[in-house]
Amino acid sequence: MPGLIEVQEEWVDNPFFVRRELWGDDDPSTLNVHMDQYYTFAGDYVGDKHLAYSLRGRGIIHFEKRTPDSTICTIGFSPPEGKWYGWSHRAIAGFGIGQHIDAKDDGSPCITSASFDEAKQHAKDFAESVS
């Protein structure tokens, strides 16, 4: 069964803690893979370099898991934009206070984030919808 063999190197790439990990198995006939994985300083998984740099490029520096049972961070806050973001490997969207969110094709209503907490909830809802 493939899995993490070892952490070969660790470093800081703000706002992330990065681990170069060797994944594979002990079978010498199989190919093992090196991957740089990005984590919060609390140890929560964010994603690979491509995703981490995309999030950092939007100014997102505060990352959270959508639920306590989640295994990966899929929401985060960007102080420069004043927005909560939700994402998956498929899509990303930001939600700010007073931001108008258009109706979807499925007939759901238009909504506006009236508070910081509502914007965060919209980010959670979006992350769940694209996961």
Describe this protein with a few key phrases.
131 residues; 2 helices; elongated; 4-stranded antiparallel β-sheet; alpha+beta; 42% strand; single chain
Tell me what you see in this structure:
The protein has 131 residues and is α+β, with helices and mostly antiparallel strands. It has one domain (3-130). It has helices at 49-57, 116-130; strands at residues 3-13, 16-24, 33-39, 45-48, 62-65, 73-78, 83-87, 92-96, 100-101, 111-112. The strands form three sheets. It has a four-stranded antiparallel β-sheet with strand order 1-2-3-4. A four-stranded antiparallel β-sheet has the order 5-6-7-8. Strands 9-10 form a two-stranded antiparallel sheet. A hairpin with an 8-residue loop joins strand 2 (16-24) and strand 3. The longest helix is centred in the last third of the chain and has 15 residues, at 116-130.
Write a compact overview of the structure shown.
Helices cover 18% and strands 42% of the residues. The chain has 2 helices and 10 strands, in the order ββββαββββββα.
- Which range best describes the helical content: under 10%, 10-25%, 25-40%, 40-55%, 55-70% or over 70%? 10-25%
How many distinct helices?
Answer: 2
Structural class call reads alpha+beta
- Overall pLDDT level: 89
Shape label: elongated
Number of domain units:
1
Strand order of the largest sheet: 1-2-3-4
SSE ordering: EEEEHEEEEEEH
Largest sheet: 4 strands, antiparallel
Topology, number of strands: 10
The proportion of residues in beta strands is 35-45%
State the end-to-end distance.
Answer: 25 Å
**What gyration radius follows from the Cα positions, in whole Å?**
17 Å
Low-confidence stretches: none
